[in-house]
Amino acid sequence: MERLDFFKLFHEIGSADYELLCKSLKTKTFEKGDFITVAGQIQRGLFFVKSGVQMSYFEAENKTHVIAFTYSPNLCAVPESFFQQIPSKCFLTCLTDSEMDYISFDQLQNLFDKSQQIERLFRRMTEDVLAGVINRHIELHSMTIEERYKTFCKRSPQLLQLVPHKYIASYLGINPTNFSKLYNSVKF
C-alpha cells in the first residue's frame, strides 16, 4: 500500500501537505536484532515501516511480555515515549531486516504548526492506535485462547511465518505449549 493511500484511511490530506510531510522524512535501515528504542531511552523519531517486522515488549519476572508487532504500512514507535518525550518503559526491536522512514519529534511539531491537515492526520492515526489498544485489552480479557489465536491469524496471518512463535504466544497471553497445540490443530 502506498503511503498516501495509507494516510487516506485516516484523513484526506492535499498534495501540498503530503509533499511537506514527505520532505521531512528520512530513511533508515535496521538489521534483524537491532534496537530502535531501549527501556530508559526517549524515542526521538516516529517511524513509518516500509519493510520488515518490529516488536515492542517489556521484561518482567524474567519473561518477555510482547505488546505489539509493527509492519508495513504502519507506524512504529513506543507511543508514550515519543508523544510525551519521556523515557520508554519498553524495548522496540527489529525481528527482521527493516527499512523505515522517520521524522523527529521536533520536526513533527513544526509540521503541526504549519499544517492543520497534517496535525489532524496524526491525531486520527493516534486515535486509531488508542482504539486498537482498547480492543486488544478487551480481547485479552474476554476471549478464549482459541478465539485470540483465530483473531490474530485473521488480522496478521503473515506474522506466523515471520515471527518466532514464542513471541506471538506472549502477545496473545498464551502459554507457548498451548500456542503450539493451537498452531498445529486450528487451520484457516
From TrEMBL:
Domain Cyclic nucleotide-binding: 9-52
InterPro entries recorded: cNMP-bd_dom, cNMP-bd_dom_sf, RmlC-like_jellyroll
Pfam family, one: cNMP_binding
Domain of life: Bacteria
Protein name as it appears in the record: Crp/Fnr family transcriptional regulator
The species this protein was found in: Belliella alkalica
